[in-house]
Amino acid sequence: MTEKQNNNNSIIISKNLENNIKYIKEEMGNSSDLTIRQFNLGINSDSRAAMIYINGLVDKRFVQDFMLEISNNIVDVDRSTFMKKNLLEYLMSFPLSAGEVKEVFSLEKIILDILLGSTIIMLEGYEKSISINTSHSEGRKVEMPTSQPVIRGPKEGFVEDIGVNLSLIRKRVKDKNLRIEKYLIGRITKTDVRLVYIKGIADEKIVEEARVRLGRIDIDGILDSGYIEELIQDEPYTPFPTIFSTERPDTLVADLLEGRVAIAVDGSPFILTAPSVLIQFFQASEDYYDYFITSSFIRMLRYLAYLLTMLTPALYIAMTTFHQEMLPTPLLISIAAQREGIPFPVFIEIFIMEIAFEIIRESSTRMPRTVGSTISIVGVLVIGQAAVEAGIISAFVVITVSLTAISSFATPDNKMALSARLLRFAFIILSVTFGLYGIVMGLIVLTLHLCSLRSFGVPYTSPISPFVGYEMKDSIFRALICKTKLRPKSISKENLVRQGEDAPHKPRNKK
């Protein structure tokens, strides 16, 4: 077979159908799931055609409907009629119940489309073919999000099918300015990745930066959005997440309306949004569905719980080891009485219990769901009680570590909660070495580190530093929705006004 090449050094389609089929089979290693169905066109016609697809990736109903359509429209057509028609155009004019229908001119593109779930129609004597998007896969149906549940609010969550996820976004954003750009990333996996944003709201510089970062990725495979997150983030050497991820469509759309861009990856129920700031990881979608006073109070509890997760063990070590004079005398006597007979210093007690809790937490996560909750609850109670009775650990240490563990669950974003769990050990080491002075030094270094972080060029600590007054209405606290008329300009300076001037007013008192 003589292989013709175009300007891009890709092998173009031969007019000989058998040569094309042979090439495709050889390139795909005669794969067992590669299906090739050859058939004649019309009565007394030597025109041959082939339908090529991968079994399991295409919708079988389309294949059956297409063959039936051919039988009804072409079989009775004689050869003289074929000589007067362009068969490709004739086939493309069929009212097919499928997705995108396009022409392809190279065998490499044909193979790529086959791998993406398309059905290829090739004809004898033509140097081009028809590619029909018939991709279909059996996946998980839309159900309640598992990692971001709410009491009040939508119960829909993203799934592994990127088409379903995009439809959930379209369902909520019925606007012509919603833009979805497609990328194929991964030399081997060729994973479908989509860049989503609202034109006129998202900053064009942010959109272009996202395009550049996605275009620079050169890797053999992308299996989850976590790959993309790590490859495009500004600062990889930090315990804090700088790109937000969510499996809730309402949360994603809220981010798009604030001017952020989203990155969806086929096969992953978590969609990334950027730029992301620190306070975003302490907010939940339910904050905007409940009364603003209640939401503000709960947000304060989340910040407090994060600090407790990070600092409680370190403070206990510092106060009981270096700064006993700061404790009330009755409390100090009680702690000393409980520590009588304990063979280990305080920081060893803390380390033992913290490591035990982390092992139990990880075990409960990896175990089957029906068993995991039992391990996490019963395991903690049994180990803690047994350690106290054995005289290895004091009761105050068990209380301290338990408070730390419970507080870690109050952070809505799991990645941010993990950062507190990691930093907790760093502060324990500082408190063992320098006491309260070490904790203060650690907090200063941590603050400087947070101020140095960027997410797609946006300061991570915005709107606190740099300070943006009106954005504080939706940061640590949440003001009334009618009071937040502007989008956060730290994210995007495009189309800042999101609400009309005629905001609801207080009802007048009845006379």
From TrEMBL:
Cellular-component GO terms for this entry: membrane
InterPro entries linked: Spore_Ger, UPF0353/GerABKA_families
Keyword annotations from UniProtKB, A to Z: Membrane, Transmembrane, Transmembrane helix
Transmembrane segments: 303-322, 392-410, 422-446
Pfam families: GerA
GO BP annotation list: spore germination
Family: Belongs to the GerABKA family.
Protein's name according to its UniProt entry: Spore germination protein KA
Species: Proteiniborus ethanoligenes
